[in-house]
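Lecture 7 notes. Example A: sequence first, then its structure tokens.
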Amino acid sequence: MTFLPDINLWIALAVIEHDQHAAATKWFESTGDAGMAFCRVTQMGFLRLLTNRSVMKGDELTPDAAWRRLERIRADLKPLFAAEPAGLEKVWQDLSAKAGSGSNFWTDAYLAAFAKTAGYTFVTFDRGVSRYGRTGIHILRPA
């Protein structure tokens, strides 16, 4: 099994001070030998949020430090980098058409479609992702 963690999960895993770090770590430790994957959208979102003052509550990283944090994640957790699977755009279009609107609906629909098309499980703390169905989506409970 391969998991596609949402950006919020990658941040919670990487930032010890994050409110959901304990829950993210507990989930990660329960996955055993399952694979983890970054895609370009989760990689970019991870870097973007690490450098965002309000998200990091004043402890934002410089771009160089964010890249180093990503490299540490790669070294420690050994995630694969997943290229877009064939057929992704049609599934994304179908999911986004059902989603309506919202602040993150484009990204959420993309990641749900990516996981579905690639045969991965999308893992997130975001309960709103349930609008895309339950198949291939795992919503974590906050600590």
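Example B, a different protein, same format:
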Amino acid sequence: MAGLGRRVSAVDVETKAQPAQRRSRETYDRILLAAGELLEEVGMERISTNMVAERAGISPPAFYRYLPNKYAMVVALAERLTAASNAVIAEWIAAGGLETTNLKEAVARNFEIQKQVTDIIRAFPGGPWIARSMRALPALQDVANRARREVVDQLFAIQRHRYPRAPESELRAAIQLSTDVLSGNSLMVLQDPEIDGDAMLREGCLMVALYYEHLDARHPPA
């Protein structure tokens, strides 16, 4: 996987053109659906653009009208997945997901969004594979970092009002750490089918809620 990461950084990973017409969008969607399915079946080393084109029911030249190579295809999938995940997180924040008054409520609210995000990844074509690869492929790390910064910025905008006396660097670090803990917990659940997923997610949410109780003690909320 590390070798793949080095090669990805040296090739074009940009989508050639965003399809505008309905038929083109449908073709593009079929390409990404086929790519996600095949990634789970055969992995990055074996997957090829020809395999994806065949699964999508198009010719190889048609594939290259949208994407220059298989690495760009994976990046496009990762961007769609992180956009879908971040959208539900933004909705949860806007609906008052952070507005809790006790530990039990905080755990329940955190579990609510954690379960949604984990289910989105599980249902997304190639989602578990993409989530695992976010930490290994440099091109996907860029996507992951952008998505995480977006979430951290949204959370910080809310928590800044709750913790007005906390140093900005400390508060941002707390938010990023808790976000990464929950992300890693989802990944563990997705990787191991023997794990009781809901129980594990709740434990992760409890850890984060307890962490914020210590933050409350250091910097009493407004």
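Note on Example B: The chain has two domains: 2-64, 72-218. The radius of gyration is 20 Å.
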